[in-house]
Each structure stands twice: as structure tokens, then as C-alpha cells.
Design goal:
404 residues, alpha/beta, Rossmann fold, 2 domains, 7-stranded parallel sheet, 6-stranded parallel sheet, 44% helix
């Protein structure tokens, strides 16, 4: 795309190619990226390709942006490279996501300081610390260091040491980033409280995710089965793997005993062997990647989000509720939602509460539909992406990013 005079110049950095919006981070980055483009920004994107299909996504973005630099991230090689952090004392995350090509591109883009550097995920902040810019926004969403702390608590001795070290080193880096950038953004008030406890002296702004209510809209009850539950997510992501495997092992046998025709749909790309094996359990279907998830929501009567290793506003929860499904979620997966209608969400801590939460809606399909519709009405009022764009625009105005 040719250079556009008198347009705000934005450098946009994120881990993954921000298209298509088919997983949590890509949903968020795409929506805020396209909002900046819609407002007339001249955007240059730095990110990583992880799979072959990302090349077409890069071409899609190049048609809309001034420039896209997206080196291929070979995860096997990157894991070996990340071990350098043990010698340098830095968090392993940083060398994992380090690229000379990307650093050279950012340096070139910032020879004339841009109006804004927008960073999503602390791993990409290493590219933004040195270059000058009129404003820098760091969208943490949640602190990655706390994810590693959670992993350490459920790991064996070696994992506890490695993950614990990563949590400590990455928090030190996140604090440096927060104190360098003009603004820090988190996804919920819960995250804001934790952020201020761990990084005192920096007060982040809350910028939640939204939900595409037009896309995630039910198309009727013709295919709906009263005893079908659904779990959605990328199925090589450890919190998803841990949560749905726990549910299949600890909760599903009892539910199948009480409801012999019960079905569980595990819908999401990249299922690892451990997830694929769940498809051998009676009543469980593992779909792998699907073109779109709404038809699977329309087959279901209740959604589940039994995550134990995650926190913050979960896209899977918002999408299920937008599809008019009541949801049973762990405390970790339900934090940050605010005042959800009581009938729409069951917060279940542990095996017994999770089983009973699903069973009450399996046992009463009319109640499940009524409570699901209440969930959809609430999401449409509180969680439209347009609300989040307004919050971002207010921050950009305060930072004097020169949109016309």
C-alpha cells in the first residue's frame, strides 16, 4: 500500500498474524487493528507466521496496511534458542520470539518516530523499548508472567523450577515495559488489581475483549440436542487441554450415567494426541479445525469452560453466551465478566459443582433455552466490540494520536 500523507503512523506488533480472527489473541488483535485502519491510520505490522496458511493471511493484511513483516517462527528451533536465556539471565520467552529481520524492520519504521507503537503481548515489547515514538501502548491483556506462575504450581520439580524462574524473570521485564510505555492495558478489573499488586506505581487502563454478536448469533433450535455440551478453543493450548481433559476424566462419566444420550463436542483446531484420544470416550466428539463454530453451538444446550490455568475475560465464554447458551465456568474462566445475569452463568469450583451445573440444564431444556437467551441479551448490551473501540479511542485521544 502506498504511503498515505497526513495519516497517523502506527507500528503494530503482535505474536501471531492478526488474521483470521479464529483464536483468542487473533480475535483481539484483528479487531483493534481493523479499528485503527478504519480510523485512517497508516499501519505497519510486525508479527510471526506459525503455519503454512498464515501466508495467505499476510497477503490479506498487505492489501490493507503499509507494510507487513512476518518471519516464520519455527517452534522447535525457537525452543532451543530460548535456552540462551539461562545464560543471559533473561526470561526464556524473549529469545523465543526474537528475530533479527523483525528488529531491523521496526528500527527502519521508527527512523522517523511514528505517532504510535501498539504492542500486544509482552513477548513483543522487546522490539518497542528502544525505538522512539510519540506514544507507546502495551496491551498486556493479562500478565504472561502469572500464567507461568500458575503452570509452576501444577508441575513436577523440574517444571516448577523452570516455570517459576520464567514467572520471576518475565515479571521483571513486564515491569520495565510498563514503566517505559505511555499506557498499559489489561482486560479486566481483576487483572488491574493483580497488575497493581505486582507492578506498583503503574495504573493500567482496562480494555476488555468484545464479541462479534452478528457472527455469534443463533440460527434456531432445529439441530439442538438437549443433552449436548460444547467446549471451544485451540486444542494445543495448555489451559484448554488441562481443562477439558479434567472435565472428561472427572465429570463426564457421571453425566453420561445420569444422561445416557449425553454428548460433548470439543470444537477447535490443533488437537494434540491427548485430546484426539478423548474422542474414543463414549459420547465425546473431537472435531479438529472447523470452518466456523456457530453451527456447533446451535447443536448444544450448554457450554462449559472448566479452565484451571487461565484467567481474564475468555472469548469462549462470551461467544457461547452470544450464541444463547448458558455456561458452566470455573472461577478462573469467569473472572472479569462483571454483573452476569445469575441464571446465565454457573461458576463451578471443582468436580461436584461442575457436574451439577451441567446437569441442571440437561435436566430442564426449557430452562436452558430461557437462561441462554438471557445470556445473549446481556452480551449484546455489555460486550459489543463498539464499546471497546470507544474505550480505545478515548485513550488515543488522551495520548494525542493525531486522528482527523
Amino acid at each position: 500500500m502506498p504511503n498515505q500523507a497526513n495519516k497517523p503512523r502506527v507500528v503494530f506488533l503482535c505474536q501471531r498474524v492478526p488474521w483470521p480472527p479464529d483464536r483468542g489473541d487473533r480475535i483481539t488483535t484483528w479487531h483493534f487493528l481493523q479499528h485503527l485502519l478504519a480510523r485512517g491510520a497508516e499501519v505497519r505490522i510486525g508479527c510471526f507466521q506459525e503455519e503454512d496458511r498464515d501466508q495467505s493471511a499476510v497477503e490479506f493484511l498487505r492489501e490493507r496496511c503499509a507494510e507487513v513483516v512476518a518471519p516464520r517462527l519455527a517452534r522447535g528451533k525457537a525452543k532451543l534458542t530460548s535456552l540462551r536465556g539461562l545464560l543471559t539471565g533473561e526470561p526464556l520467552t524473549l529469545p523465543f520470539f526474537r528475530s533479527r529481520e523483525l528488529q531491523q524492520a521496526v528500527t527502519r519504521w521508527c527512523e522517523t518516530p511514528p505517532d504510535l507503537i501498539y504492542v500486544y503481548s509482552s513477548s513483543m515489547a522487546q522490539y518497542a523499548l528502544q525505538p522512539k515514538a510519540s506514544a507507546k501502548i502495551m496491551q498486556f491483556a493479562e500478565l504472561d508472567s502469572d500464567k507461568w506462575r500458575q503452570y509452576a504450581t501444577v508441575s513436577g520439580p523440574l517444571g516448577k523450577w523452570i516455570y517459576g524462574r520464567e514467572a520471576k524473570r518475565l515479571l521483571e521485564f513486564e515491569a520495565k515495559v510498563a514503566r517505559t510505555c505511555s499506557r498499559s492495558l489489561v482486560v479486566s478489573e481483576v487483572e488491574k488489581q493483580l497488575f497493581q499488586e505486582l507492578i506498583p506505581g503503574v495504573v493500567p487502563d482496562v480494555l476488555p475483549n468484545g464479541v462479534d454478536i452478528e457472527h455469534f448469533s443463533p440460527q434456531g433450535d432445529g439441530d439442538r440436542h438437549p443433552h449436548t455440551a460444547i467446549f471451544t478453543g485451540v486444542m494445543d493450548y495448555e489451559p484448554n487441554v488441562d481443562g477439558v481433559c479434567w472435565f472428561a476424566e472427572r465429570c463426564w462419566p457421571t453425566l453420561r450415567e445420569r444422561f445416557p444420550d449425553a454428548q460433548l463436542l470439543i470444537v477447535g483446531s490443533k488437537p494434540i494426541a491427548k485430546i484426539t484420544a478423548l474422542g474414543d470416550i463414549p459420547g465425546i466428539t473431537v472435531t479438529g479445525r472447523v470452518g466456523t463454530t456457530p453451527p456447533y453451538f446451535d447443536k448444544s444446550s450448554v457450554a462449559i469452560a472448566p479452565l484451571r490455568l487461565a484467567r481474564g475475560v475468555q472469548n469462549k465464554v462470551l461467544e457461547a453466551m452470544s450464541m444463547a447458551l448458558p455456561i458452566v465456568a470455573s472461577p478462573q474462566a469467569s473472572q472479569g465478566l462483571g454483573s452476569v445475569p445469575e441464571q446465565a452463568l454457573t461458576v463451578a469450583d471443582g468436580e461436584e459443582q461442575t457436574i451439577e451445573g451441567v446437569a441442571k440444564w440437561f435436566a430442564d431444556p426449557e430452562r436452558a433455552r430461557r437462561d441462554g437467551l438471557a445470556a445473549a441479551a446481556w452480551v449484546r448490551t455489555e460486550w459489543r466490540w463498539e464499546h471497546m473501540y470507544d474505550r480505545l479511542d478515548a485513550i488515543l485521544d488522551e495520548l494525542k494520536v493525531p486522528f482527523s
